[in-house]
Amino acid sequence: MLYCTKCQTVCEDSTRTCPNCKRSRGLRPVKDNDEVFFMKVSEGEATEISALFESLAIRHRTEQVKAGFSTSVFDSEFVPTDRNIYVEYRDLPRANETLAQEKEDPAPAEEDDMPKGKRMVIQTVSILAFMVIVMLVVFASDFLATLLRELFMK
Ligand SMILES: [Zn+2]
């Protein structure tokens, strides 16, 4: 694999110019400790991913996206708080795997921890409670209407 020192991406050995920035002068064989542009994320995601990589000892670095300079053609839109994540080449496969797993199996929402039966009971109870309230309102207004009618009939 080749490494483009201009935009910090890797590409196939067969290419003469970097497919990302279209330059040829920055290309050289990639080294294990080269920082490869990994992805651009929002500030919050950067913190999360950084912590995740930290826990797995994936060598990485995050950097504020510079205004007027986009490292990639993947995405030219950015907000100033966005961060670029760079991962060392030797840890890149692990970084990719980690993120792929994260996407496949996102942290379950709290609601999903509840057993299905229990959730159904709660739903049924809340539906019944709602019906009781509706009936009470109907009876109460009916009672009031009767009361008023009796008052005026007299
Ligand atoms: Zn490039």
Quote the beta fraction: 15-25%
List the bound ligands. zinc ion
State the low-pLDDT regions, or none: none
Number of domains: 2
How does the helix and strand content classify structurally?
A: alpha+beta
What attributes characterize this protein structure?
154 residues, binds zinc ion, alpha+beta, Alpha-Beta Plaits, transmembrane helix, three-stranded antiparallel beta sheet, 2 domains
Question: Would you give an account of this structure?
Answer:
The chain has 154 residues and is α+β, with helices and mostly antiparallel strands. The protein folds into two domains: 31-104, Alpha-Beta Plaits; 110-153. The chain is 44% helix and 18% strand. It has helices spanning 43-55, 92-104, 110-113, 116-153, and strands at residues 2-4, 9-11, 27-29, 35-41, 60-64, 83-88. The strands form two sheets. A three-stranded antiparallel beta sheet has the order 2-1-3, with no helix packed on it. The radius of gyration is 30 Å and the shape is elongated. The N and C termini lie far apart (98 Å). It binds zinc ion. Zinc ion is lined by residues 4, 6-7, 9, 18, 20-21, 23, 26. This is Zinc ribbon domain-containing protein. It comes from Anaeromassilibacillus senegalensis.
In short:
The chain is an alpha+beta fold and 154 residues long.
